Amino acid sequence: MLVMTPPMGYNTWNTFGYDINADLIKETADAMVREGLLEAGYKYLVIDDCWSELERDPKTDKIIPDHIKFPKGMKDVSDYVHSKGLKFGMYSCAGVRTCADFPGSFDHEFLDAQTFAEYGCDFLKYDFCHCPQNIDGRLLYRRMGVALRNCGREILYSACNWGVDNSGSWMRATGADMYRSTGDIIDNFKSFSDILLSQQHNVGYSGPCCFNDLDMLTVGMYGKGNVGSSGCNDIDYKTQFALWCMFGSPLMIGCDVRHMTPEAKALLTNKNLIALNQDPDCCPPYEVASNRWNSRMKSFIRHLSNNEFAIGFFNMADEADGIPFFSFNAGLDVSCDYGFALTDMFTGEDAGLLEEFTYPVIQAHDCALYRAKIVKL
Fold this sequence. Notes:
377 residues, Immunoglobulin-like, 18 strands, 24% helix
């Protein structure tokens, strides 16, 4: 089993899109080590779409790297990434062409899997654009799953079909290690909060060996890059990262890690939040309550290892208000004489006791997140 906790790494798409090359990938590898991202657990460096020539090699039929962007070939880049202690990731698509109109892997799955293995690939993001009509998407993902298992190299299989055909209910069976069942994230608050709200029903489909991917993080982008929009501020990014950690999503950084702000770096390397994301029990959270007048204000609880819990209050609305939490809904009967002792995950400070009920006021777009232990009152 390749992954027992959510994969962590970096993907080029959010910031760079088409504008990628060997020097950028090597500089990013350097930055991931220099800025402490590898030490924090981010070990995959993934090149997204736009890395290949527009057509396959006419002699071998293989997908080949763009000779201008990658003049020494992809193995040279892979070797450099590996020399830094990182793992190397690539991109392909289940269709005849990728989403950016480069060669896809349809009907070439075994050849392409072997090619990726030759390049030293450790991670494959597999998209879903330009598939022939009336082809069952489940079959296409099964085919690549079989091909990867027989390519002679361990390659993490990251399926990305945007939730088509209720993919959460069957993607694990294709051999996927993680899967995305959302549309593309945009760098604004509404985009990532809508993604989270759309995925509450999928939490039961995520766990060891196959994790529901909420898409690459936009933390630290501030409106710049390939999926730039209005951008977010540090409070917005705080909530995004906390939600991704609470829901056990793979953590794939999307900002330019060569030029992170101190605030973004501190958030992305927060040991308490990463420990939540990487909790070995991999239990999903469940909703405890929402604001009666605004369902974008919610409280969640998640069972953790060592008989601990995560309790979170998330205001995904545009105004401040209280968010209720009923201990009864979290499994503590009113008469049991137990409560939750809280530790703030952002600061590490003691946050007191949560007994029968609390209704904290959370500012717009903000959150509060605690590690909790059950204690006798």
